[in-house]
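This is your field. Pick holes in the following sequence-structure pair:
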Amino acid sequence: MPFSYKVGLGNAASYQVSGKPYASGSIDATVANADGATRVGFPSVTSWIVVSNKSVDPCKIGFSANGVSNDVLASNFFFTVPSGSMSPRLELKVSELWLSGSSDVDVIAGLTGIDLTQINNPGISPSGTNWSGSTGV
């Protein structure tokens, strides 16, 4: 029986090649949706991400709406990019980011060829989309 090679979350080659470019600029993360945050969805799984905060206000970044929630129980599930600064290159495989607090954020990423269904399914993420936020992500 021949070996079946396919792209997926555990496939190292998917992350070793150059990523397809993704950029979204001047995101206003003060205009929140019903979850209290602004969602940035990627068209495929990321290999890396950089977030630039050009606002005078700090920007909270999480991997789910729960992550950047103002709820006391979920208040430690994000990281902050201070005003006028940029995150390091984050080697992360995610399908979305959630932003809160800043009025001028740029997000750039390298995208893999991995379909979003590799992450966005109940077998991998309990919420069925990205990471649930229930355990800190």
